[in-house]
Design goal:
The structure holds 2 protein chains of 2 kinds. In chain A, 22% of the residues lie in helices and 32% in strands. Chain A has one domain: Glucose Oxidase, domain 1, CATH 3.50.30. Chain A has a 7-stranded mixed beta barrel with strand order 1-7-6-5-2-8-9. Chain A is built from 3 helices and 9 strands; from the N terminus they run βββββαβαβαββ. Chain B is of the alpha/beta class. Chain B folds into 3 domains: 167 residues, Aconitase, domain 3, CATH 3.30.499.10; 106 residues; 123 residues, Aconitase, domain 3 (2-Layer Sandwich), CATH 3.30.499.10. Chain B is 39% helix and 13% strand. Chain B has 16 helices and 14 strands. In chain B, strands 12-11-10-13-14 form a 5-stranded parallel beta sheet, with helices on both faces. Chain B has a 4-stranded parallel beta sheet with strand order 8-7-6-9. Chain B has a 3-stranded parallel beta sheet with strand order 3-2-4. In chain B, helix 12 links the parallel strand 10 and strand 11. The longest helix of chain B has 16 residues. Chain B is globular and about 65 Å long. Classes of the chains: A alpha/beta, B alpha/beta.
């Protein structure tokens, strides 16, 4: 069990998908299928649907908030986001989806060691409150 | 929420005493303030809203919630691109239902009091932010330009919070609004480069792409640019860095307002690390921007971010008396005001006569404007090159503005043999 920082509250559980590079949701994830479409991304083609998506951070585009929120609306969002660096554009997508649709997609930041310990395929439980978060990985 | 202290006006909005729209806006802003450990809110003097670009039903769901509650912006607010070119609506080739929804979204923001600027380059408008002024800007390339080139202060705002800030005139006192987050962190030291490359527009998007890939979300400092870059050069650099990375601010020593010296750029602290920018590294970054080699191309797209009047002048001079090759398209994206100015100078007519197609209010990589049969597209923009393969499913050939124009007129990729020296 690792302690982290909550950027958006909620509880999520699912199989981890660990991305080896940052991902922009806009231009990087198809909000109708939840698949990674960034042609330069190492995990091109992978589905984020229902996964605990573990990624270093987002990338530049400020439209990623909308695309993440649209994934939530369309039912193709990840179960949780676990980040190494805070990304407010992604947190915002989760926060607005919660306001509009009553969903709760937790977005948390983990310290480097705990972040690095998660492997693709681990079953991961994420709990994020107002500020504190904890992440339990069962490898 | 320990640590966050709200002003009475923030409290009243949050309690719904100022109406439903300010309440929703304040709820989103408070959630962001918590996520950033902000201790208070500060005023902003202007906003630039990106949420007017349609990304699906969620865009309208959120906007209608605000608009139906009578939301009005409290500060001067400009709008980013939308899905439809409202001056040339027939250029939209996508699903008509999406076009209609996208258009409705754009109109909703105008209805809330936003100016119908529909440009990703609001820093090219006359009343742009001044040094030290706090603003709430969304659109990654605009954010990095406002912070780096203008010395204004904006955090990296995304869709939704941009209009929340515009409605309340308030943002969390966090991130790039604060001195301690504006200091340089990673040093990019340019080595000797071929003269032609140093004076070419092509250096800047490539350097931006490299810097974004290396810096991620850290603040880069660039040392060793020998030629004095123009605003268009810095615009291309920032747009590249904010696509491959999450760069919201860079410093160029001796050139940008908060970096008179190397020491000032880093706030007296040493760099976390130093990246030596050699010709080899730039060539590698350049090659990453292309996903096809050519020589076959179906279209050329320039003007991402939106072309300035100076860029349209260069474009008109490069096209000169040539014509776009039969079966080839040359798209030029710009904003309405710049288009009007270029029209007055005769460049629009000349370029259209040569076969160019102008696009305003939107951009060719965010919405279906290109012929659906286009498979390979050439561009001079690192940002376009970064996003178009995912958004449009096209392959990209990256080149300088001159390479793009000559390729459009020849109907196949033309390369300037001396541009990159021995780097090929």
């Amino acid at each position: 069990m690792a302690d982290g920082r909550a950027l958006a509250p909620g509880d999520g559980f699912g199989e981890a998908l660990v991305l080896s590079e940052p991902l922009s949701f806009w231009g990087g994830v198809d909000p109708s299928t939840g698949r990674i479409i960034d042609a330069r991304h190492p995990q091109l083609g992978a589905s984020v649907v229902g996964r605990v998506l573990v990624l270093p951070s987002g990338r530049g585009s400020s439209s990623s908030s909308s695309v993440l929120a649209e994934c939530v609306r369309a039912g193709v969002a990840p179960a949780a986001l676990v980040l190494r660096e805070p990304d407010l554009i992604l947190a915002l997508g989760a926060i607005v989806a919660a306001e509009l649709y009553g969903t709760a997609l937790p977005v948390v930041v983990l310290p480097d060691e705990a972040y690095a310990a998660i492997r693709t395929g681990d079953r991961v439980r994420v709990h994020a409150g107002d500020r504190a978060a904890c992440v339990e990985a069962d490898g | 929420m320990a640590g966050l202290v709200l002003d009475p006006i923030d409290e009243r909005r949050l309690a719904g005493e100022e109406g439903e729209a300010p309440r929703l806006a304040m709820r989103v802003l408070v959630a962001m303030a918590r996520a950033t450990d902000a201790e208070r809110f500060i005023d902003v003097e202007a906003a630039h809203v990106d949420a007017c670009l349609y990304h699906g039903q969620v865009s309208l769901d959120f906007t209608e919630r605000l608009a139906s509650a009578g939301a009005r912006v409290a500060v001067p607010t400009t709008l980013n691109v939308g899905v439809v070119d409202l001056l040339h609506p027939d250029r939209f080739r996508g699903d008509p239902a999406i076009g209609a929804a996208g258009r409705r979204l754009m109109e909703r923001y105008v209805g809330m009091g936003c100016r119908p600027t529909f440009t990703c380059a609001p820093y090219q408008l006359p009343d742009r932010p001044r040094r030290g002024q706090h603003v709430a800007w969304a659109e990654s390339n605009a954010i990095v330009f406002a912070n780096s080139v203008l010395g204004a202060r904006t955090a990296r705002y995304g869709d939704f919070i941009d209009i929340c800030a515009a409605i309340t005139g308030r943002v969390p006192d966090a991130g790039l609004h604060r001195d301690e987050y504006r200091r340089g962190q990673v040093l990019f030291r340019l080595g000797p480069l071929p003269d032609r490359l140093e004076s070419s527009d092509v250096l800047y998007p490539v350097l931006g792409h490299l810097i974004g890939s290396e810096a991620g979300s850290l603040v880069p400092v660039i040392e060793g640019l020998s030629a004095e870059p123009t605003e268009d050069h810095l615009k291309a650099l920032g747009a590249g860095a904010a696509s491959s990375g999450s760069v919201g601010l860079f410093h160029a020593v001796g050139m940008t307002p908060e970096a008179p010296t190397l020491q000032a750029a880093f706030g007296g602290a040493p760099p976390l690390r130093t990246v030596e920018v050699t010709l080899d590294r730039l060539v590698a970054a350049r090659d990453e921007l292309s996903t096809a080699a050519g020589p076959g191309i179906d279209a050329v797209s320039v003007g991402t971010p939106h072309a300035s009047i100076a860029e349209l002048e260069q474009l008109a001079a490069l096209v000169d008396s040539a014509s776009v090759h039969a079966g080839m398209a040359l798209f030029v994206s710009t904003d309405r005001a710049t288009l009007a100015e270029a029209e007055a100078r005769g460049w629009v007519e000349a370029l259209e006569r040569a076969g160019a197609t102008f696009v305003v209010d939107t951009c060719t990589y965010v919405t279906p404007i290109l012929d659906a049969r286009a498979r390979v597209v050439m561009t001079n923009s690192a940002k376009w090159a970064y996003y178009a393969p995912g958004n449009l499913g096209v392959a990209v050939v990256f080149g300088s503005l001159e390479e793009c124009v000559r390729s459009a007129t020849l109907g196949r990729v033309w390369r300037d043999p001396d541009l990159w020296g021995d780097g090929g």
